[in-house]
């Protein structure tokens, strides 16, 4: 009877130990984030980097009315998680940048992002067409390209988070007011803003439709002078690069040699049209050497970008694309 009692005690101790082990495993496999209840979760951007044997990046999809989110630390390609970096953007507040290591990954508690209000910047502007005529009742979106995320997480090439800033509508005179966060006052940006604000129209992304007197955006500061935004209509750039052109530049005249299996266009050689501002557009070069692309009116330099060759090959400089017109460029 005594021996049977001892066995029962041992069995109970074993079950308790097993349960504790299971609890530990569960607590280290997920990390919980609880957003403050006074904010709209749908407007929050959460970027996470899991570090182990390399880096696994992911963006969490936030939803209206949902304040709690979990990150599965085991669901990654880096093996056992050694650390976790979070980057959380909450509109109107400073960027939240936190790193968790070792014991901090034992997630018995949830991380609640602190809220520190951010200074706002007000900018007045006017939207006009290329003939300086005001454009009334136009919906405009402002976004911010968070290039700082690449430095923060430690990667050189990949997706750049895009932060939605605000949506405005021009009045009867084409004028509008922008309220922008002054990221220059946020310690995360260290006073040097390498990202950029961008303005876009409701029917397309900004780089394709809108160019300002300030290239593609604004510095993140506290005050702006009144400025004018010109909406540039598109033109068409089309043409063909022939066998002779490719042979003169020591390239295979058969562009099928640059096509990866399963693709229908060459990915090892691309034709790019670049503006003076540095903004570039892929001209959609096809295997037969033809290309056809719509671009905002302006002057472009055409270059070939070839995999494995550091030097870019000039096709033609100062190609003028006019609004609502077609420009043809051909090289035999």
Tell me briefly what this model is.
The chain has helices spanning 2-29, 148-153, 206-209, 243-248; strands at residues 30-34, 45-52, 54-60, 68-72, 83-89, 96-101, 120-129, 139-145, 162-169, 175-181, 196-201, 210-212, 227-231, 234-241, 269-274, 280-282, 290-296, 298-306, 313-321, 326-331. It is built from four helices and 20 strands.
What are the main properties of this structure?
single chain; 332 residues; mainly beta; Immunoglobulin-like; 3 domains; four-stranded antiparallel sheet; four-stranded mixed sheet; 4 helices; 40% strand
How helix-rich are the residues, as a percent range? 10-25%
Spatial gap, N to C terminus: 100 Å
Order of helices and strands: HEEEEEEEEHEEEHEEEHEEEEEE
Per the principal axes of the C-alpha atoms, what is the gross shape?
Answer: flat
* Tally of discrete structural domains: 3
The value of Rg in angstroms is: 27 Å
Strand content: 35-45%
CATH class of the largest domain: Mainly Beta
**Biggest sheet, spatial arrangement of strands:** 3-2-5-6
């Amino acid at each position: 009877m005594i021996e049977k009692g001892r066995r029962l005690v041992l069995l109970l101790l074993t079950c308790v130990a097993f349960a504790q082990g299971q609890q530990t495993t569960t607590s280290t496999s997920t990390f919980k984030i609880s957003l403050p209840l006074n904010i709209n979760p749908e407007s929050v951007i959460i970027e996470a980097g899991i570090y182990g044997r390399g880096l696994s990046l992911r963006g969490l999809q936030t939803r209206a009315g949902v304040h709690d989110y979990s990150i599965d630390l085991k669901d990654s390609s880096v093996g056992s998680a050694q650390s976790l970096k979070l980057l959380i953007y909450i509109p109107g507040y400073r960027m939240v940048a936190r790193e968790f290591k070792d014991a901090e990954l034992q997630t018995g508690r949830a991380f609640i992002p602190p809220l520190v209000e951010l200074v706002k910047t007000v900018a007045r502007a006017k939207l006009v067409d290329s003939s300086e005529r005001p454009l009334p009742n136009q919906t405009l979106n402002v976004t911010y390209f968070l290039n700082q995320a690449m430095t923060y997480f430690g990667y050189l090439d990949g997706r750049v988070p895009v932060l939605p800033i605000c949506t405005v509508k021009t009045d009867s005179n084409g004028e509008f007011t922008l309220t922008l966060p002054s990221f220059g006052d946020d310690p995360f940006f260290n006073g040097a803003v390498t990202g950029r604000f961008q303005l876009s129209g409701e029917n397309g992304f900004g780089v394709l439709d809108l160019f300002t007197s300030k290239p593609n955006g604004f510095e993140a500061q506290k005050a702006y002078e009144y400025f004018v935004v010109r909406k540039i209509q598109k033109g068409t750039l089309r043409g063909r690069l022939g066998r002779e052109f490719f042979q003169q530049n020591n390239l295979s005249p058969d562009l099928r040699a640059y096509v990866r299996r399963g693709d229908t266009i060459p990915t090892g050689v691309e034709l790019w049209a670049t503006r003076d501002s540095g903004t570039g557009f892929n001209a959609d070069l096809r295997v037969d050497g033809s290309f056809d692309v719509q671009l905002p009116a302006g002057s472009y330099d055409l270059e070939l970008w070839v995999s494995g060759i550091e030097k870019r090959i000039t096709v033609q400089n100062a190609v003028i694309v006019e609004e609502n017109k077609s420009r043809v460029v051909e090289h035999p």
